[in-house]
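Good morning N.,

You mentioned wanting to compare the apo and holo forms, so I went ahead and generated the holo version with cytidine-5'-triphosphate. This is what I fed in:
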Amino acid sequence: MEPEMIGNPIELIREQLGHEYAELLVEITRTATLLGFGIFIVGGTVRDLILKRDLKDIDLSVTGDAILLVDEVSKSLDVDIVRYRKFRTATIKTGRIEIDVVSARSEVYPNSGALPEVKLGDIHDDLKRRDFTINAMAISINEPYHLVDSEDGRSDLNAGTVRVLHNRSFTDDPTRLFRMFRYASRFDFDIDENTYIAAKSAISKQCLATISKERLTNEVLLMLEEPHVDNAFRYFIEFDVLGLPVSGNEKISIEHTNLEFKWIALLSMYSEDCYEQFCSMFSLDRKNTNMIKDYIDLCSLIKTNDLLAVDRTNISATYFLLKQVPRPVMDAYVACHPNQLNVNMLMDYMMYTDQVKINLDPIGLINLGVDRHHISDVMDILMIGALTGKIASRSDEEKAVVQYVNEHKI
Ligand code: CTP
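and this is what came out, ligand included:
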């Protein structure tokens, strides 16, 4: 097939990213040409240029040694370069956009999830090793400019289809499952039928067991950061990625929420019996771990206590049960348990606690004679007083504190 001739891709970069990046590419291309290398914009950059979407980075592939190229480039340009000599790839760090340069290569995966064996190759080899047809196009940026589309990515991009290049793709690299969810949800594309079957088959063969906890966590994190994360979540459940029983909660909308909340929402899509197993699959940072732990504690607390209705007469018992639970965890519980009776209780409880404000702080209590070991007890008394309507002002608070000090002789 004749290659499709297209306009100067550097001008497309100029339109999208400005003069500075276009000139950088001109210089990199000039150097590659002097070295006798072909140089191509590849992967997601071509996809996003065709879709006219904002570029997050620029992916380049050269038919030659990428390290040699960046070494030469660094002689004429003042840029930071990170070299990955083992993989013959490099990243040029400049401002908000990074330029990734790879040596065009073929890859063979010795086993599922392992790092591939790499051999330098031409641009067709380099496209063949990629994940999906929509990510397997290249545009040559030394003249004559043309689109290399041996995997027919352009048609899939037009049709809105995510398609793997071959059926072993997910077993070779199981992280591609998450990439598929990300692209299908980000672009609202369909998953091609054979790709769907290949993904299901790889999951049923436990392909995810071949990747580390850290990689799995990282892929889920990338998924959680997608703008249309709700759809990505649905694929995650539909494909039964974790192999855990589900709770029926998968309709929760979590777009526009923060990361901790998204992890909880993901957890809540699974049955409570397997929360521990869920947590053991990921390597989460301390903030997320604590929030998930508090959430699990709240679930079991609500399950083991008959918390159905709360009002001013019975609020103190609920206060003692829930006082340690951080507010964002309660918010997450409410959002993740739509239509449950105890959610109304929790919302009422939050409404009552939102309405009260204690004027005295720990220093104020110490000034009134409270021993510092009793501060938390006295705070509880003030909160209960305020929640039940018995304490309504700063002077009520002071009276209650003085009474406590006198009674306890502290
Ligand atoms: N790639 C691949 N298999 C992977 C990861 C990456 O084939 N497991 C290829 C794809 O061709 C991809 C390119 O490497 O387009 C660059 O990877 P990356 O920067 O992760 O992806 P982008 O396509 O830029 O996608 P995103 O917009 O999500 O960053």
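The mean pLDDT is 91.

Happy to go through it together on a call whenever suits you.

Best,
F.
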